[in-house]
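Listing S7. Sequence submitted for prediction.
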Amino acid sequence: MDTMKIMILGGTAFMGPLVAKCLKEQGHNITLFHRTKSQNQAFAEMQGDCNSPDDLRKAIETFQPDTIIHMVAMYQSHVEVLEKALSGRKIRILIVSSADVYKGFEIFNKLSDSPVEAVPFTEESPLRDVRFPYRGVPGIDIGYYYDKILVEQAALRSPLLDTVIARLGMVYGRNDPNRRFKDIVRRINRGDNTIEIHEKAAALKTCKCYAENVAHGIALASQKGAAGEIYNIADKEVLSELEWYRTVAGLMNWGGKFLMTSADDNFELAKTANLDQHLMLDSTKIRKELGFAEIVPLEAGLRKTIEWESRM
């Protein structure tokens, strides 16, 4: 594949450096555009705000990218700002989106009382009817205007953007801001002999995906994805929560026991979520069309995650 000039918007936190590293190893020229200067000397950087057309215009004019990867397109306005920055120029872009666009996410989070959706979700599965899913949710600063559905729609209809969409599952790994295995790792490390898990939570299947595999998928879609197309990126193997717990426990040589319970009182998730709604992504399309496959085995990625989490 020919060398490309790729600019990554929001390339310094969690997934950004992994995507940049993957693309650089493939021989591409990478520039990171972000608000604050990082300590990473491996990539060219430009500081600026993705909410500012002037900042983005300066970066685009300076670097002249062939492709933009937008890691932090949270609001429809992010697409509109980019359009202004392009000043009529057309460009290829990959928008990093989320599985939270699907109707099943709405049902899981009890945003509506619609019937449970079939899983796994394909790229053609129904989307949420409820917009701005995080409005009013404590602790989520971006929640008021955040909606990846509106971001996707704006990017796909833009006459200036040759848009590819990558929808991600629940990404885990080193520097994961959500720390998806925090509780189980903490409890094992402190020496708990028994760990309770709600019986419905134990059976729940969600699309957890290891960060380096996801970065590989994003890099692949940014180069080979067809404009106007959407690709789910998720690990092929899907485990229940109990299977995840048991895998973590095995890797940590834990000799305790998991106790099933049906009581909701001590399980916040059982009180706030519809645990009959699984959250699973079908990644067949990106595998068949772009040749995606995991580059890090499940246990190897999980072991790295446990080691990182144990140091936190």
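Caption to Listing S7: primary sequence and predicted structure tokens for the chain studied. The two ends are 40 Å apart (CA to CA). The chain has a mean pLDDT of 93.
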